[in-house]
Design a protein that fits this description.
Length: about 400
């Protein structure tokens, strides 16, 4: 019975989506310029660096936006040449933020975002059905923040992060001709962020920011087994009527370091660049503690430890904006995002690829109102899957694209 769960890192999708197959969608204007961060034109800077609020040109700024994100993953068994493709629904990440200056050198704000979340759906009877059939992920970040202008050219900001998450995972249990559902809708955790924002020259913005690790704690997760015969349930310590058991887990979301630069080459043309560093080595394993079911792999049979062997990863971003008029802006960008794990650790529930992304968009400004449109096309690099611990071998490919619409309002 151990093999039913030993090969599965329950809830790991919340994590590897964040570090690997992550879609950076926390600002439409930012996405158009490769999701670079050193832009303090409105409250959208709040998610990236709270210190940037001090340099927003208006006393009050409000932004909101949303995206449509589509992705498809294909896996091919190189021995049988059988190919399987996901049928994923469109993801719809959202964000909103507000920033206000009650005093000349003090800004306060709030940011809401859904930085991680998607649904991956493989065919019910595909060859990896014991690892995943369907996985739905959702997360919500709530960030109150404050920024203080220490000098006309420098500010410091900090934020508190409260995170809520949900996971709903279906997989097959072929040993008993059944299925297993892993579900938790109340995972939560907290962390913090801080940063410095510099404008030493009217032409140059520099953003340095840090976002702390967050331990997402699932305290009341439910594992539901569905077998043709309920007689198996008591043998595994499950509820004889529902086939359910409880579990707890701590899911380590890792820290992120960001350095961003924006330089105004001319009054109409600017160039931005970012470097992101993600400390994914912290996610070396995942431990699940079941209430009763002896499905673990430790001395205590109710405890399951799954090695993950993630590594630190980096992202490099370059974007540009050109003002055609005082009202119309064109934007382009490109970035490269590293996967946090090797081919030997590839997992189909949250596929991750080394990915190139091309972005672009336009912005329109009418007095206090702004409208931004952006899109991105991802070019994930194919992977030779060699996960011996899961017995999973083949080749994986993916493609993805994103569209976004953002609104901004700087009334005074």
């Amino acid at each position: 019975m151990k093999k039913i769960l030993v090969s599965t890192a329950l809830l790991a999708g919340v994590l590897s989506y964040a570090g690997g197959f992550r879609v950076s969608l926390q600002g439409v204007k930012q996405l158009a310029m490769a999701h670079t961060s050193a832009h303090a034109e409105d409250a959208s800077v709040a998610f990236f660096n709270p210190a940037g609020m001090s340099f927003i040109p208006s006393k009050l700024s409000i932004v909101a936006g949303g995206f449509g994100a589509s992705n498809k993953v294909t896996f091919q068994n190189l021995n049988t040449l059988q190919s399987t493709e996901t049928d994923n629904p469109m993801g719809t990440p959202l964000y909103a933020a507000v920033a206000y200056k009650p005093l000349e050198n003090l800004s306060v704000g709030f940011s809401f975002s859904t930085p991680f979340g998607s649904t991956i759906e493989w065919p019910g009877q595909w060859e990896g059905k014991e690892m995943v059939q369907k996985l739905e992920l959702k997360s919500f970040y709530f960030q109150p923040m404050v920024s203080v202008k220490l000098a006309p050219w420098m500010s410091f900001g900090a934020s508190y992060i409260y995170a809520k998450g949900k996971v709903d995972w279906d997989k097959a249990v072929t040993q008993f001709g059944g299925e297993l559902n892993i579900k938790d809708e109340k995972a939560s955790g907290s962390g913090y962020g801080f940063g410095f924002y510099f404008r030493p020259d009217p032409k140059l913005d520099v953003s340095i920011a840090y976002r702390s690790p967050i331990d997402m704690k699932a305290k009341k997760g439910t594992a539901t087994f569905k077998f043709p015969s309920a007689s198996i349930y008591p043998l595994l310590g499950l509820d004889p009527a529902t086939g359910q058991d409880k579990f707890t887990a701590t899911l380590p979301l890792v820290e992120e370091y960001t350095i961003g630069l924006t330089y105004k080459v001319t009054p109409k043309w600017l160039i931005s660049a970012d470097f992101n560093y993600h400390g994914w080595e912290r996610y070396s394993k995942l431990t699940l503690d079941f209430a009763s079911a002896p499905v673990g792999n430790q001395a205590d049979p109710t405890i399951l430890v799954s090695p993950k062997n993630f590594r630190n990863s980096k992202t490099f971003r370059l974007g540009t904006q050109y003002a055609f008029t005082d009202m119309i802006f064109g934007r382009l960008g490109a970035y490269y995002d590293e996967s946090p794990y090797t081919d030997d650790n590839f997992i189909p529930e949250t596929p991750s690829f080394n990915t190139y992304v091309i972005t672009g968009g336009v912005g329109f400004k009418l007095k206090q109102f702004g409208v931004d449109i952006a899109g991105g096309y991802a070019l994930p690099q194919a992977r030779d899957v060699k996960n011996a611990s899961l017995g999973f071998y083949g080749q994986a490919k993916a493609q993805a694209f994103y569209l976004g619409l953002g609104l901004s309002y700087n009334p005074f």
